[in-house]
Amino acid sequence: FIVGSLLGSAALAFYSISWSWARSGELFISQAISPVLLSYFSAIQKDELSLHDNLCSSLRNVYLLAPLLALGIASVAPTFIPTILGEEWIPAVRLLQIMALTGCLSPLINIIGTALIAVGKAKLVTSYTLFYVVCLFLILLPATALGGLVAAAIAEVVINVITAFLILHFARQEFKISPLNIMFLIGQPIS
Prior knowledge:
Oligomer: single chain
Strand content: under 5%
Shape: globular
Number of strands: 0
């Protein structure tokens, strides 16, 4: 909406395709595991230790694959986009490469969000979603107006990083998992 309003429909098309492809790997994983995680986390919600351990295990396991998919898409974007979509889509390449970082953050946000819903803390999910929307107006709007598409893509990454920090706070508050422990868990497969 913001990008299209400020930069036009062609810019919105480049932005949208980049946003979608940057998250495609994570969405594939989330669609497969989110319903299972929601049911499972709901079933074990009273067992804090089991919930803690399974949430940590879920994050670690998803991060074996999700960042590789996001960064893989970014690395092949210069060939993939013109070959699959055509030469007219080349402006989306740089945007996709920037927004691939959001594909690395999305599993963190989605898995912890699923766990929050499972334990009856949907209001926290609503609060970080509203926070994200506010950030769109406070960060994405001026970035897009002042810097165009590349600035919009960078702003999207910044908003996701800020939202991830809020999610890490909720994980500490509700599941007694420190942000450093989560960073260690999801960083293990990459290192």
